[in-house]
Write a structure and sequence with these properties.
two-stranded antiparallel ribbon; 10 helices; eight-stranded parallel β-barrel
Length: 300
């Protein structure tokens, strides 16, 4: 089981000094955290009531969201081993060739630490650029990942054809250090997610299902991977871990980590904690990582 930290709520933790996030990730790296994950919002609109995943979007429209790949590049230069993830990058908002180049560059400069979580987003306001309409974004995401795979994993020149992007005889160098950049897809427990992960992905980021639904879907994804000649046991699944709090609202790190062991039986390979739910202010971040690293190693 791997341990992931999701970063959001930057104002609460770092105020106006958002660069302090990089220093915080040095502490996560030293504590033995396996993965850092950056979410993505290019812009925020006023219609937070459209948020589909829980009762209320947890932040106001004015909350800052750092661009994930840029931020991970800064973190890569400040750390040595922690893996660099997105959760999720809104892939249809990026031109495909620029996305392929940026991810490959980050993987090279981090010496092979990139994990790309992708999704389509839920805000119409983010799809304001011409040619990047809200309708059709799922097809563009799938085609983008196919195109990126071709550019990352095929000797040039590369030719690619799909419904939304095509190119002929191009090189996109450097290619990633990793033979295969791990791609995670966010999605509900349904047939579309099963097909997408089995065909194009390496991991699943469940959106909303119960543990039993996760286990059932994992079994189906593994079967679909096997049908495609892929190793079903290579599938990665990340689950958001509930944070246990004491009466004084501080995090009970030991009790939180103690929840992890049974999750492997559901096919979960990575658990994630949201940093803003674990630290109430910036000065708590480093002590939290130190305590979490100690508890994690003791229960691993």
């Amino acid at each position: 089981m791997d341990l992931s930290i999701m970063v959001s709520g930057l104002t609460k933790l770092f105020g106006d000094d958002l660069a302090a996030l990089v220093d915080a990730m040095r502490a996560a790296d030293a504590a033995g955290i396996d993965q850092i994950v950056m979410p993505d919002h290019v812009v925020m609109g006023p219609r937070l009531d459209r948020y589909p995943y829980q009762e209320k979007f947890p932040y106001p429209p004015s909350e800052p969201w750092l661009e994930p790949l840029t931020t991970l590049a800064a973190i890569a230069g400040a750390t040595e081993r922690i893996r660099l993830g997105t959760g999720v990058l809104i892939a249809p908002l990026r031109p495909v060739l620029v996305l392929a180049k940026t991810v490959a560059t980050l993987d090279v400069l981090s010496r092979g630490r990139v994990e790309l979580g992708v999704g389509t987003g839920w805000q119409r306001e983010e799809y304001a650029e011409p040619g990047m309409g809200f309708i059709g974004r799922t097809q563009r995401m799938d085609d983008a990942m196919r195109a990126c795979r071709a550019l990352w994993e095929t000797d040039g020149p590369v030719t690619f054809r799909s419904e939304t992007i095509s190119f002929d005889d191009i090189w996109c160098a450097p290619r990633p250090v990793q033979p295969r950049v791990r791609v995670w897809f966010g999605g509900a427990a349904n047939d579309a997610t099963i097909r997408r992960v089995a065909e194009l992905g390496d991991g699943w980021l469940p959106l909303g299902p119960t543990l039993d639904e996760i286990a059932s879907t994992v079994e189906k994804i593994r079967h679909a991977m096997e049908e495609r000649g892929r190793d079903p046991m290579s599938l990665r699944v990340r689950h958001n871990l509930a944070t246990v709090h004491r009466d004084d609202k501080s995090v009970d790190v030991d009790a939180t980590v103690a929840q992890v062991a049974p999750l492997a039986d559901y096919g979960i390979t990575t658990v994630a904690l949201t940093l803003s739910r674990c630290a109430r202010r910036g000065e708590e971040v480093r002590p939290f990582f130190e305590a979490l690293g100690t508890a994690w190693q003791a229960n691993r």
